């Protein structure tokens, strides 16, 4: 499925979000659409066969699967990217690494995101890595279970 002209327009317009060291519109739009819970729009930033690798889970492949995953797992999250670095690699591709924080309704955790963009500026890969110690993750899990009670 090709991105619609409105999706392409959204990905290339100047977004309101800023991340120190990052000017790539698709990356900025990724964070904006997730924070807006516009999960279909987020999935359209990926190439047709793009892959998202969430922490501690199987990779999710394809725009439809990514949208479905985000709808189920990303509601209520607020991504707070702080800084990043982009680097051109072979074949017109770009790698981008961003660090920041994700705030859930219960706790916050430091996160890094690693993206690969193809020559068409589509996301081909996005890996989300939690930067927390096992004890911090355990404490967060305990807090989460308490709030569900």
Describe the protein's architecture and organization.
This protein is α+β, with helices and mostly antiparallel strands. It is built from 5 helices and 6 strands; from the N terminus they run αααββαββββα. It has helices at 5-12, 25-35, 39-43, 63-73, 134-148; strands spanning 46-53, 60-61, 78-88, 94-103, 108-117, 123-130. Strands 2-1-6-5-4-3 form a 6-stranded mixed sheet, covered by helices on one side. Strand 1 and strand 2 (60-61) form a beta hairpin. The termini are far apart.
The order of strands across the largest sheet is 2-1-6-5-4-3
Shape summary: globular
Radius of gyration: 15 Å
Average pLDDT score: 85
Query: What's the number of helices?
Result: 5
Kindly state the percentage of residues in helix: 25-40%
Q: What does the main sheet amount to?
A: 6 strands, mixed
Number of strands: 6
Which percent range describes the beta-strand content? Answer: 25-35%
| Derived structural class | alpha+beta
Q: What's the order of the H and E elements?
A: HHHEEHEEEEH
Low-confidence parts: 1-15
End-to-end separation in angstroms reads 42 Å
Quick synopsis:
The protein is α+β, with helices and mostly antiparallel strands. The chain has helices at 5-12, 25-35, 39-43, 63-73, 134-148; strands spanning 46-53, 60-61, 78-88, 94-103, 108-117, 123-130.
